[in-house]
Amino acid sequence: MGITELAVLRWVHIVAMVYWLGGEWGVFQTSYNVVNRKLPMDERRRHMETAYRIDILARTGIILLLPLGMHMGHLWGVQPYGGAFLAAMWLFVAGWLGLCWAAFIYRETDRGVKLTVWDERIRFVLIPALMIAAIASLFGKGPFNAGEMQKWFSLKIFLYSIALVIGLKLRFIMREWTGMFRVLAQGPNEEVENRLEKSIRFGRSIAYVYWVVIGSVAFLGATKFV
Predict the structure, then answer these.
(1) Which run of H or E residues covers position 186?
(2) Distances (CA, A) of 63 to 19, 86, 177, 197
(3) So what's the pLDDT on residue 171?
């Protein structure tokens, strides 16, 4: 067969999934040291910095999965919009990625917090749009083709939107870290330490659901059994 457009897209899609899943696991493990009160504050800040550096790859992966999925879906015949739609989708995602990376670069500043808020606002619009499109398609109302052995794509889009919801909550948690560590840098603060631990405990609990959803997205894409 040789190297085809679909084969290259599938390869990039696999790499994006690996960074998404692996990155979230890395942040999960690093969070234990972020909240460890026995460690010096400088050490905890280094672990937080490591978490951010790992997380940006996970964020990149999850964002890239959208245009990759839409592009491959078109080649598979389950997503009928190609041409200008796909070009616009890739341009949109390029801008979104630029915003995401800018927020990462300025993460310790007020500018970084504002950029992160704009990143989140994109998700507020995108998540319900994807959910509605996926559910409507499963009920035969489009926009995706969901005939026999085609429902996997709409189901995958729906689960992807659920993953974005969970990821958005995890973004909120990481944004809280920045503010709380600014306070802790001024000296010991029991109340803030307790809030930090509570925040990360909740983040860890929903991370388990996150991994199940990510695994389900991958399973649907690999098997296409419905």
Answers:
(1) none
(2) 11, 15, 22, 28
(3) 84
